Amino acid sequence: ESYDMGGHDTYMHKEISEQADAVDRVLRGRIDDRFSTVHLGGLNLDAREARGVRRIKILGCGTSYHAGLIGAGLIEELARIPADAEPASEFRYRNPVVDPDTLYVAVSQSGETYDVLAAVQELKRKGARVLGVVNVVGSAIAREADGGMYVHAGPEVCVVSTKCFTNTVVAFALLALHLGRIRDLSVADGKRIIDGLRKLPEQIGRILETEAEIKKLAEVYAGAQSMMFIGRVRGYPVALEASLKLKEISYIHAEAYPASELKHGPLALIEPALPTVAIVPDDDLLEKNRAALEEIKARSGRILAIAHREQERADHTIVVPKNENELDPILMGIPLQLFAYHTALAMGRDIDKPRNLAKSVTVE
Ligand code: AGP
Q1: Most ligand 1 atoms within 8 A of CB, residue of 169, 249, 360, 363 to mutate
Q2: Where is the SIS domain (predicted)?
């Protein structure tokens, strides 16, 4: 991969289109079929140390923070280690309690984001062990961290992050699998996740082939003043990231909420002029998510569902291929990158250089 536009009109489109290859790269050379695990030599964390980790705290900003939220979910599900993610920009200003049994993970595409770097430096000063999940090789955060993994997304030029988000989430799936197999994840479950990971590039390819359909839907919704994005548990960070993408490049106001929180307030906003994008995976929460669609429909809200099969209550559904439940968020975010892209295109926005934003925020 290079800095050449390769026939695309924008870097964003090029980078979205590169995701099957990018995911293939983050997996390459890391899977160990014999033991149903993955090798992550750069972590500098042996099995005994990994077993001693009591908690994992992930720090990042913007899209990287959202990838960290999905990562925390994967770590809890696969490794059963309590994990959460927090914006590094908040963490560094609140005099956090630094616990020696907590493993800290700093996430950054550029590896140069000042808020993340400052958080890492503060943690190191307090004796914490910090891993980096970083795209740019040799960047400041990669150098400061005690170990970590590169996400191998290749160069990302567009100000908004797409392929690096996807690769970062896959990198977290690898980390979760690795930690899980050191702890209580069975050989069978390890194999199940590996099989799922191997399917991703082909499934991403299939999602990208539906671009013409997504473009039509984006043109339908492009007139909205504001949009709501909802998801539950695994789907909530997908909703957060999709709403950020739409805001950044189309300048349409967008809110992301856990679907479970609708009834606690935001339902008051629902009316025909406020469309909702709903993440509706075929998992243990399917019926709960369908109930949320009913609630929205009862208030005459328009719904675009991202799901594994057509959703009756939705006005439109983008159907994505099914993977293992834990890995579904990786695929469900991709059509929404194209949705944001085509919405912004229909509105004539400068997609690669949205107003007021820089690719990497290296100052306070
Ligand atoms: C992504 O679309 C954003 N422009 C932004 O939120 C970005 O993810 C954030 O500034 C963090 O950057 P980093 O990953 O390079 O640290």
Answers
A1: 360
A2: 45-185, 217-354
The set of protein residues with a Cβ atom below 6 angstroms from ligand 1 is 61-64, 108-110, 113, 116, 159-161, 248, 357, 360-361
The chain-wide mean pLDDT, for the chain, equals 95
Q: How many residues does the chain have?
A: 364
Beta carbons within 8 Å of 61's beta carbon, 6+ residues apart: 87, 88, 89, 108, 113, 115, 116, 361
DSSP 96: P
Tell me the per-residue pLDDT of 265-311, one tens digit each, with 9 for 90 and over. 888 999 999 999 999 999 999 999 999 999 999 999 999 999 999 99
For residue 287, report the distance from its CA to the centre of ligand 1, in Å: 34
Q: Could you read off the pLDDT of 9-30 as tens digits, one per residue?
A: 899 999 999 999 999 999 999 9
Task: Assess contact for 332 and 235: CB atoms under 8 A.
Answer: yes
Is 126 annotated in the active site? no
pTM of the model: 0.96
